[in-house]
TrEMBL record:
GO terms for biological process: Mo-molybdopterin cofactor biosynthetic process. Its EC number is 4.6.1.17. SUPFAM superfamilies: Molybdenum cofactor biosynthesis protein C, MoaC. The active site is at 129. InterPro entries: MoaC, MoaC_bact/euk, MoaC_sf, MoCo_biosynth_MoaA/MoaC, Mopterin_CF_biosynth-C_dom. It catalyses: (8S)-3',8-cyclo-7,8-dihydroguanosine 5'-triphosphate = cyclic pyranopterin phosphate + diphosphate. Pathway: Cofactor biosynthesis; molybdopterin biosynthesis. Transmembrane segments: none annotated. Keywords: Lyase, Molybdenum cofactor biosynthesis. The keyword Lyase applies. This is Cyclic pyranopterin monophosphate synthase. Belongs to the MoaC family.
Length: 161
């Protein structure tokens, strides 16, 4: 295995990185996202009066399921045997903001960041889908890696601010 991991072979063609020689380590990643909406939309979510049902329960399930399918969604991403995926929500009703926090864990040879980011993204998209009939102006954003531990590159933690 080369010291330089790359998605290109010696001819410049796309390949899946060969991780054969990398040791399996415990890895965790936490990603975040934010959905901004009208305060009255968020209040309806909190009151569980959205016609399609419990928005957070469905978005949580969608995020977990998406994390498990990351290798099918992101080109050249390795399929990983996830050991845990969690998706949680906090809200600021006055501002109309839902904050999503997704965590994924694995013991494996390669990173887990994409699974956490996929979970957070799909959870946000699901919130949009379930509420778009009453608020098409929602904005999904601030999708980012918040924390990562394990693997060759060590620990990463996003600075606040």
């Amino acid at each position: 295995m080369s010291d330089q991991l790359t998605h290109f072979d010696h001819d410049g063609k796309a390949i899946m990185v060969d991780i054969t020689a990398k040791p399996a380590t415990h890895r965790q990643a936490v990603a975040g996202a934010e959905v901004r909406m009208k305060p009255q939309t968020l209040q309806r979510i909190l009151d569980q009066s959205i016609q399609k049902g419990d928005v957070f329960a469905v978005a949580r399930l969608a995020g977990i399921m998406a994390a498990k399918q990351t290798a099918h969604l992101i080109p050249l991403c390795h399929p990983l045997p996830l050991t845990s995926v969690e998706v949680d929500f906090t809200s600021d009703p006055a501002a109309g903001i839902v904050t999503i926090r997704a965590s994924a864990r694995v013991t494996g040879q390669t990173g887990i960041e994409m699974e956490a980011l996929t979970a957070a993204s799909v959870a946000g998209l699901t919130i949009y889908d379930m509420c778009k009939a009453i608020d098409k102006e929602m904005v999904i954003g601030q999708i980012c890696l918040l924390k990562k531990t394990g693997g060759k590159s060590g620990t990463f933690e996003r600075n606040a601010g």
